[in-house]
Write a sequence for this structure.
């Protein structure tokens, strides 16, 4: 396994801001689910990314973008973790996400992301 | 309204838009012409973009010389390689390091060159309605010269629609939109140069260099580019998969756009989308012009097209007044959706009258069932069953499934049993009834009177009616019969009064119908 770090706020911040998709993928359990809710994927029809393989592709795609990410306001409570993320594309378009994570045996098993962006 | 931005490609500004915020980037490389802002006005286009942007960040742009991007000297258009730089410039501006490239039509060769030149920036290729060599897949020299003639004479009037989606030429909404689309996407000179440049496209040599996962999509009866174009690509791009889907429209945003979005989504995300379309219970009406082919050949193209246009306008007005939720015109038939079966049946009665006023006889079917609605489309078994019920109806008749009768109790409509129809997947056959309007002072079955007859006309009037049916104008008839134009005009007015018809086109249709008897 690639994992070299405990999954905590600091590790997530470093991996996201460093656009390290491989590192991010290593934080998830095999059967983890990332659920995305946004304007195009409303609460009654959210987008689910299931399994570490798909989640690895998900982060790989996001990390291939020439954009900046800033992770802030990390909150940890028992096996739950939350953070906000402010991102910007080179043309000035901004994205803002809030994420809540559930950990089990030190790995993310469930993550819900709510995001909004300039359009 | 989405923000339109500009990317710098050399000295030129390339207009682009970014839609959605899915994890992967999807660059849409347009075909012949495009206009970012106008495209959104088309419901099919916005439906397609809505579907694609649910799982990706769609980056779309207008090629240099088209739409909202900088114009280029029409006499010296850049070649396809130079245009490829526009893809790169737009990706850079939008911060896309790596993207799936969706090339449509003429955008396909461009996407192929991009994938061959920049594999590190190409996550995957999706090529819709494409080809590698224009002259062998799209038009030969003769067809090209003919097309160039159409461009030169009719650019901006929607003249090219018949080359791209002949099914929609008589569509009241789409045809005028297409004319605007021509005008707002390229000037006449730019369109001509673009077409010339496209005609020179040959990227066959680049195919072996494409080394990314590739999905080809082609509609089986594509009116503009033969599916052979994609078959050729499949044979020469390593590992490419080809999906041939039903349909004849060439533009990617017309026809069944959900099917296209499904294929793209499955290919890129690995997951077939859970059917997005909503299933609703609906009352459906199919109104078909009876003997359309025969009438069309009798009347000639122009009179026939005028006749169907008049009918389409009258039918849409009547159907909307009676509560139609969704309307579609398919060449010689109207397909409409209603909330309740009585509304659908009443509309059928109104359409029968509207058709009769124009000299057209309709055969109609009404049915109730679950359909899938997505944007402007209505699909599902129930739609096909309604078509078949309409197929059972004779001239002037309205047939319905017995469900319509059962659900219309209390509506004042009456129904008479007319046997059964087998439907695949149903355990027992569907009972069919004939719709009969309630008429207090007349027999329950509509009077099948002889209607107006040629016998009411004088010999001279009959002679003139025959000329009208041939599509001749009043001055031409006057010259032929050695009468004054005023006299001919008076005769035509008398003919319309005696036959109780509203227009020359209706008289022509009536005359054609008489000849058939």
């Amino acid at each position: 396994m690639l994992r070299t770090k405990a999954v905590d706020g600091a590790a997530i911040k470093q991996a996201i801001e460093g656009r390290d998709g491989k590192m991010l993928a290593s934080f998830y359990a095999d059967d983890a689910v990332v659920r995305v809710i946004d304007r195009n994927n409303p609460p009654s029809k959210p987008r689910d990314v299931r399994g570490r393989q798909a989640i690895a592709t998900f982060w790989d795609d996001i990390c291939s973008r020439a954009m900046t990410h800033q992770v802030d306001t990390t909150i940890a409570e028992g096996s739950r973790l939350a953070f906000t993320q402010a991102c910007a594309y080179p043309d000035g378009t901004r994205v803002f996400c809030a994420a809540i994570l559930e950990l089990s045996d030190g790995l993310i098993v469930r993550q819900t992301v709510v995001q909004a962006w300039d359009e | 309204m989405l923000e339109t931005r500009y990317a710098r490609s050399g000295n030129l500004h390339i207009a682009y838009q970014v839609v959605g915020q899915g994890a992967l980037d999807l660059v849409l490389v347009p075909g012949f012409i495009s206009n970012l802002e106008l495209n959104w006005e088309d419901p099919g286009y916005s439906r397609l973009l809505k579907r694609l942007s649910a799982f990706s960040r769609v980056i779309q742009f207008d090629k240099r010389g088209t739409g909202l991007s900088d114009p280029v000297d029409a006499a010296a258009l850049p070649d396809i390689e130079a245009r490829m730089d526009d893809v790169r410039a737009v990706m850079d501006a939008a911060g896309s390091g790596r993207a799936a490239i969706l090339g449509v039509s003429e955008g396909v060769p461009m996407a192929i060159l991009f994938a061959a030149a920049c594999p590190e920036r190409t996550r995957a290729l999706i090529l819709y309605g494409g080809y590698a060599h224009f002259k062998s897949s799209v038009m030969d020299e003769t067809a090209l010269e003919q097309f160039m003639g159409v461009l030169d004479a009719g650019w901006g009037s929607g003249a090219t629609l018949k080359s791209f989606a002949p099914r929609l030429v008589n569509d009241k909404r789409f045809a005028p939109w297409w004319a605007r689309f021509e005008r707002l996407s390229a000037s006449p000179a730019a369109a001509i140069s673009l077409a010339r440049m496209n005609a020179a496209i040959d990227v066959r040599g680049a195919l072996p260099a494409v080394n990314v996962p590739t999905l080809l999509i082609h509609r089986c009866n594509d009116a503009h580019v033969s599916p052979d174009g994609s078959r050729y690509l499949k044979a020469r791009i390593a590992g490419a998969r080809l999906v041939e889907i039903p349909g004849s429209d060439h533009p990617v945003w017309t026809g069944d756009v959900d099917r296209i979005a499904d294929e793209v989504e499955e290919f890129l995300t690995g997951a077939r989308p859970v059917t997005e379309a909503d299933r609703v219970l609906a009352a459906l009406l199919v109104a078909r012009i009876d003997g359309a082919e025969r009438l069309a050949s009798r009347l000639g193209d122009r009179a026939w097209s005028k006749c169907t246009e008049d009918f389409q306008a009258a039918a849409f007005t009547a159907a909307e007044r009676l509560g139609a939720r969704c309307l579609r015109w398919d060449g010689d038939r109207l397909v409409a959706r209603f909330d309740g079966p009585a509304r659908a049946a009443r509309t059928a009665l109104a359409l029968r009258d509207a058709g009769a006023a124009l000299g057209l006889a309709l055969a109609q079917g009404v049915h109730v069932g679950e359909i899938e609605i997505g944007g402007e489309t209505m699909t599902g078994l129930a739609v096909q069953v309604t078509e078949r019920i309409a197929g059972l109806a004779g001239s002037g008749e309205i047939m319905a499934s017995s469900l319509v009768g059962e659900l219309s109790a209390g509506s004042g409509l009456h129904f008479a049993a007319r046997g059964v129809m087998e439907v695949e997947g149903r355990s027992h056959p569907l009972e069919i009834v004939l719709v009969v309007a309630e008429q207090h002072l007349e027999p329950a079955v509509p009077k099948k009177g002889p209607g107006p007859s040629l016998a009411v006309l004088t010999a001279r009037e009959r002679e003139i009616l025959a000329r009208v049916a041939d599509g001749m104008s009043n001055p031409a008839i006057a010259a032929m019969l050695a009468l004054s134009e005023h006299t001919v005009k008076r005769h035509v007015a008398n003919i319309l009064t005696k036959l109780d018809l509203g227009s020359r086109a209706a008289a022509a249709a009536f005359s054609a119908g008489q000849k058939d008897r």
